Amino acid sequence: xxxxxxxxxxxxxxxxxxxxxxxxxxxxxxxxxxxxxxxxxxxxxxxxxxxxxxxxxxxxxxxxxxxxxxxxxxxxxxxxxxxxxxxxxxxxxxxxxxxxxxxxxxxxxxxxxxxxxxxxxxxxxxxxxxxxxxxxxxxxxxxxxxxxxxxxxxxxxxxxxxxxxxxxxxxxxxxxxxxxxxxxxxxxxxxxxxxxxxxxxxxxxxxxxxxxxxxxxxxxxxxxxxxxxxxxxxxxxxxxxxxxxxxxxxxx
Length: 252
Fold this sequence. Notes:
The protein has 252 residues and is mostly beta strands. It has one domain (38-250): Porin (Beta Barrel). The protein has one helix spanning 2-32, and strands at residues 39-48, 51-63, 66-77, 101-117, 126-142, 144-149, 157-162, 173-176, 187-201, 208-225, 234-250. The strands form two sheets. The chain has an eight-stranded antiparallel barrel with strand order 1-2-3-4-5-9-10-11. It has a three-stranded antiparallel beta sheet with strand order 7-6-8, with no helix packed on it. Strand 4 and strand 5 (126-142) form a beta hairpin. It is elongated. The N and C termini lie far apart (61 Å). Residues 1-6 and 12-33 have low confidence and may be disordered.
């Protein structure tokens, strides 16, 4: 009788273990399980130590904690000494005296995002590392200014000319030329870029992406970039940036 009761007790324990395991698996998939997403996209706006920019990423999940992506990035680079000048009435003008060129860059690259610390709660923060390598097309656009030609005391004639610090004195510059005036004289400067960042994702919705990102960018070009007159020209730029990104995860 005791042996029979022992068999029944052992059978009860086995059934209890399987039942508990089934309940725990069901509970895990209901309360703590994650939907399996295959792709995502993000759009970001950033501020960096030499200008502003924007970025689009198309991402593919490799695992639940890692995804690869390709991205398009557009931004500008300003010289550290760029500063708007003042006219004779001590009012701020739109002229950056000494500025030779405006410089913009378009990057196309690939990268990897890997989760370092997952969210512990729904409204928590997930921290990931970002690595990104890009090829860059730099666009160097000359600055055109409106200058006064002739005797400044006898009705000088206004003229739109490419800025030349050796012939365009401060007194003769009356305004900034049209932005499109320098397009025909633009130059393309190829280069490459590398970026490392930490991504802080905080969206409470599982299929949405809201994140702050902070990191460093290293941009290099085959030729020095002439931005300001009478200043050293560089072909390597190091910047710190912060950006806000939003996007969505998808199953397809």
